[in-house]
Amino acid sequence: MSRLRENFDTNLAEAGGDFINPKNSALGKNFGFDYYYPLVSRSPEIKEILNLIKKVAKSNASILIQGETGTGKELIAGLIQFISLRADKPYVKVNCAALPENLLESELFGHEKGAFTGAYQTRIGKFEQAHTGTLFLDEIGDMHLSTQAKILRVLQDQKFCRLGGNKTISVDVRIIAATNKDLWREIELGNFRVDLYYRLNVVNIHVPPLRNRKEDIPLIADYFRRVFSKELRKNTKGFTEDTLKLITNHSWPGNIRELKNIIERAVLVAEDGKMISGDDIIMSGKDYFAAGGRERRRNEQEVPVLDTLELNEVERITILKALEISKWIQKDAAKLLNISPRALNYKVKYHNIKHPNWKKNV
């Protein structure tokens, strides 16, 4: 890893247009999308971020990464760690929104045996685990004020005590924090400490939403297409021109995370050996037409013609129609039918409905 870090500029030049097939790149062989994407991004904003990262990564300065959910803040944090002087040291991640206040403090600082009910043994916290390395505090805007005060103290003194302990522990830890919240707004609301904000915000990186870097959407989408095609053992041939326009024009409120999920489903329902078409892209009708999609409305409103009133057959035809509209994704078909996925799965088995794209014939 250290050799790759030292040759980062060489890897950057080497990456060129080889994002899709990184096996020929030293960086691509050792790391995946998280490290490779910023090197070949066509977005001016991402290129600016990369240039800033190269300048500050090798310092010990705290870094605050801000941006909407799913924009790739953790990706940027990982790249900073990769090219920092601490690249060979521990890199510890904590999601501050995933744990309640009391458990988060124990997670961060550890606890002594008997510190609270259930503390049957001494536990080392994330700060100790990250000693000499980097601690990534994700969603720090969701951290409780009392925990913020303790984080501030550690950042100032590089010292703390475990919960229930008296021994002072010294650590050498670099902090990278991330949040999808407007911290100034949180400060005004009394939810975030202004002194902690300034301590974290030595270097500020704002990751733009995917809708503001449309140049990268086809690049990222094709990466995910190849990943899921390999995973699902399907030979997809790329995207049609209309599909590329569709995904490029979509606003992507869920950013890269939403794009990843939609491409996974597209690969799942696409015909083997063919290009992914607009019909394979599962969006709500409103989003689909706003992004320039066509023809789907006629198909979605088409009501099956029934030649029988026999209840079982009516149910079977209706289920088949819902599955066709939802591209054979049972969860989406269940929503159309206003029943639970479990209920639909039972009915699919009952009517012996099968499809070749399903991993198992249900």
Short summary of the structure?
The chain has 19 helices and seven strands.
Please tell me about this protein's structure.
The protein is α/β, with parallel strands linked by helices and 362 residues long. Helices cover 48% and strands 8% of the residues. It is built from 19 helices and seven strands. A hairpin with a 6-residue loop joins strand 4 and strand 5 (168-170). Helix 17 (311-325) crosses helix 18 (330-337) and helix 18 packs across helix 19 (341-350). It is globular and about 80 Å long. The model is unreliable at 6-10, 12-31, 285-293 and 296-301 (pLDDT under 50).
What is the strand arrangement across the widest sheet?
A: 2-3-6-1-7
Largest sheet: 5 strands, parallel
Number of domains: 3
The helix-and-strand class reads alpha/beta
Unreliable segments (pLDDT under 50, ≥5 consecutive)?
6-10, 12-31, 285-293, 296-301
Distance between the termini: 46 Å
- Measured by DSSP, the beta-strand proportion falls in 5-15%
In the CATH hierarchy, the third-tier topology of the largest domain is known as Rossmann fold
> pLDDT average, as an integer?
82
The residue fraction in helices comes out at 40-55%
Blueprint (SSEs and pairs):
Layout: H1 2-6, H2 8-15, H3 26-30, H4 33-40, H5 44-56, E1 63-66, H6 73-83, E2 91-95, H7 101-109, H8 126-129, E3 134-138, H9 145-157, E4 159-161, E5 168-170, E6 174-179, H10 183-188, H11 194-200, E7 203-206, H12 217-232, H13 241-249, H14 255-269, H15 285-290, H16 296-301, H17 311-325, H18 330-337, H19 341-350
Parallel strand pairs: 1-6, 1-7, 2-3, 3-6
Antiparallel strand pairs: 4-5
